[in-house]
Amino acid sequence: MPKPLNTALIQISGKTSGARIELDQVTKNYPNQSVSAVENFSMVAEPGELIMFVGPSGCGKTTTMKMINRIIEPSSGSISIDGRDVLSLDPHELRRHIGYVIQQIGLFPHMTIADNIAVVPKLLGWSKAKTNDRIYELLTTVGLEPEDFADRYPKQLSGGQQQRVGVARALAADPPVMLMDEPFGATDPITREKLQTEFLRLQESMGKTIIFVTHDFDEAVRLGDRIAVLSNRSQIEQFDTPAKILTSPANDYVASFIGLGAAIKRLVLIPVTEAKLGPASAAENGPLTVRIDDSLRDALDSLVLSGAPALKVVNLQNQPVGSITVDSISAVLGAEVPTLREPTAVPGS
Fold first, then answer.
1. What stretch of H or E contains 150?
2. What confidence score (pLDDT) does residue 339 get?
3. In angstroms, rounded to a whole number, what is the distance separating the alpha carbons of residues 73 and 67?
4. What was the pLDDT predicted at 294?
5. Measured between alpha carbons, how far is residue 246 from residues 154, 240, 261, 293, 326 in Å?
6. Which distant-in-sequence residues (6+ apart) come within 8 Å of 5 by Cβ?
7. CA–CA separation, 102 vs 100, rounded Å?
8. Whole-number pLDDT of residue 342
9. So what's the pLDDT on residue 349?
């Protein structure tokens, strides 16, 4: 007879939307090391929030995240999910109810894509019919046709497709919490942007509570509801919304993460509808258009890619509603967008 689950774990696993995560004074010390890897880390992630941990390599951000599902055991402090003490639960059972996605993906090469996604549902004792329905649903959700991909093996997929399967596998048991460690870091820039866009769409419908580790501040701005900028030993230098961090960095350390071009980074947070659109006739007929639900960063990228002076803006039914230019984007920011300006000639050069 299978061992009954701890009541707290049943309460956690019974949720499919996000759960509250609280870390209180969490510390990790390793033997024979005089300095803690993580020291007195405290944070609350509210249900449905996507929290980004951003910081340099070795600052402790991945260690902090791994203590939530007890891949790494904390030395002291407390961690709770929806008020249930994580440290009192069986760690193996706990991990089956927390989604986990890593950069290396970790798909089993000898198993089909369907079998990879089914790993956790099978461990949880799901019926074959329920498991198969979930596989079909998730492959469709992440943009992989089940008829084409279910029976393939990982080596038959591209890197971007494998990452989609990794996300699907983490979602298989519909966990309330997901932990993501540089999940798109190994992909090329174009694939990475597509995966980010797809993931934002998924999160909008799923409402999971997600802790997402990245070293890429632009990724943190694009994806996060709030960003924790971490320094050594996972010390929180600033924990706020992307907009607040971009406009009011707490100190020089945070400002160094933002770097040059803070205005450009802000564009990803601003919808196209914030710009004053020109007439649709001002845009050339071409393959590139901008949708009204895109960001100004999307519009700027398309303008750069096309080289056109203006691009047509279309509504969700693909009907033209206006046009957008670099000048209209600059007007929203209250400053010129520097990356598209011709370099100023240097006297005597």
1. none
2. 45
3. 6
4. 87
5. 39, 10, 10, 22, 21
6. 13, 93
7. 7
8. 39
9. 34
Is residue 47 within 8 Å of 1, Cβ to Cβ? no
Q: Where would I find the H helices in 69-127?
A: 91-96, 113-117, 119-123
> Residue 103 belongs to what H/E stretch?
none
* Residue found under tokens 């002291």: 76
**In which residue ranges of the chain is pLDDT below 50?**
1-5, 7, 338-349
Dihedral of the CA atoms 50, 56, 57, 62 (nearest 10)?
-30
For Cα atoms 220, 12, 59, give the angle at the middle one, nearest 5 degrees. 35
Calpha distance 101→87 (Å, rounded):
21
How far is Cα 143 from Cα 120, in angstroms, rounded to an integer?
21
For residues 311 and 302, the answer to whether their CB atoms sit within 8 Å is: yes
Q: How far is CA 2 from CA 5, 123, 124, 220, 322, in A?
A: 9, 11, 10, 41, 62
d(CA 158, CA 217): 26
Alpha-carbon span 152 to 165, nearest angstrom: 11
Question: What is the helix (H) or strand (E) element at residue 179, kind and residue range?
Answer: strand 177-181
Q: Given the DSSP bridges, would you call strands 320-324 and 235-240 parallel, antiparallel or unpaired?
A: unpaired
Cα–Cα distances in angstroms (integers) from residue 136 to residues 96, 113, 143, 334, in the given order: 20, 11, 11, 48
Give the largest Cα separation in the chain, rounded. 86
